[in-house]
Design goal:
mainly alpha
């Protein structure tokens, strides 16, 4: 099955990106406290969230925290463990018949594998079997891609909101012309913080997380395609050796060696 666990690359990448920018700014003589602008942050975040709510739905926007956590989870694609399980089912079906799988179907964790083998046990034709499983996969994939697209959309709105925040800040600056020049300089710097936040959030949070979710979707699809190929081979009564040849194409070289090692134990 897909191996799950923590994926530190998201948090590590964010740490490296933000840390590098702050380190460079500090080495150039800047003061990190000068980059703190709560009003600018409020404008960027609220503006982006508002635009997302308009373009999608409030329900989708409320899922952003959970999707952020999901991007920090490690989800692998096809694994030697899944391939081994399919081969064991192929051997059992070849030795004892398709109906011998009936007792193990309901205990399976993966929904696609459980549904596919249930259809096999029920005597579903090969074409219909693949059509049903591919249809389910397409629907699940589309839903997951919509989650990734939500972050990409936010990445498009965020820089624009930064520009809007900067323009609003400059309006205040122009209204104070003729005053203290030191105060005026600080006001101009504060106005441009909004652009910094907008571009920074887009390129360090929204777009990278969207890409991470897309990579997880690709791994998800490969895993499900492996299951579909394996289940169809089992349904057609193919030999375990032929099933192994088919599903090995989904594995990386190291994973193929691990599968071979499991087979010889």
């Amino acid at each position: 099955m897909a191996r799950r666990g923590s994926d530190i690359s998201t948090a590590l990448g964010l740490l490296i990106g933000v840390g590098g920018l702050l380190a460079g700014f500090t080495l150039d003589g800047g003061n990190i406290l000068a980059l703190i602008g709560i009003p600018a942050l409020i404008i960027i975040v609220s503006g982006t969230v508002g635009a997302l709510t308009i373009s999608s739905s409030l329900r989708d926007v409320l899922r952003i925290p959970s999707l952020m956590m999901q991007s920090m989870q490690r989800v692998s694609g096809p694994s030697p463990q899944l391939a081994q399980q399919l081969l064991e089912f192929a051997e059992k079906a070849r030795r004892d018949g398709i109906l011998s799988l009936e007792d193990t179907v309901e205990d399976l964790e993966d929904d696609t594998l459980r549904k596919g083998l249930r259809l096999v046990v029920d005597g579903t034709e090969s074409e219909i079997l693949v059509e049903v499983l591919e249809s389910d996969l397409a629907i699940m994939e589309q839903r997951k891609m919509e989650d990734a697209n939500l972050f990409e959309t936010a990445g498009g709105f965020s820089p624009t909101m930064g520009i809007i925040g900067t323009v609003m800040g400059l309006v205040l600056v122009l209204g104070r012309l003729g005053g203290d020049m030191n105060e005026l300089g600080r006001s101009v710097a504060t106005a441009f913080i909004a652009t910094l936040y907008g571009i920074g959030l887009a390129n360090l949070v929204w777009l990278p997380v969207g890409n991470k979710l897309k990579s997880q979707v690709r791994a998800f699809r490969l895993q499900k395609q492996l299951i579909i190929v394996g289940v169809r081979s089992i349904q057609q009564g193919e030999s375990p050796a032929l099933v192994k040849e088919k599903i090995e194409g989904f594995l990386e070289e190291q994973e193929k060696k691990e599968l071979d090692a499991n087979r010889t134990e």
